[in-house]
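Quick note —
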Amino acid sequence: SGASSKSETNEYAFMGTPIIQEVV
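Predicted structure written out below.
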């Protein structure tokens, strides 16, 4: 992760859950 540093929470959540929100 790191594409969007808008929320670091999304980064850790992405690891446990399929959150593609940070990719957008």
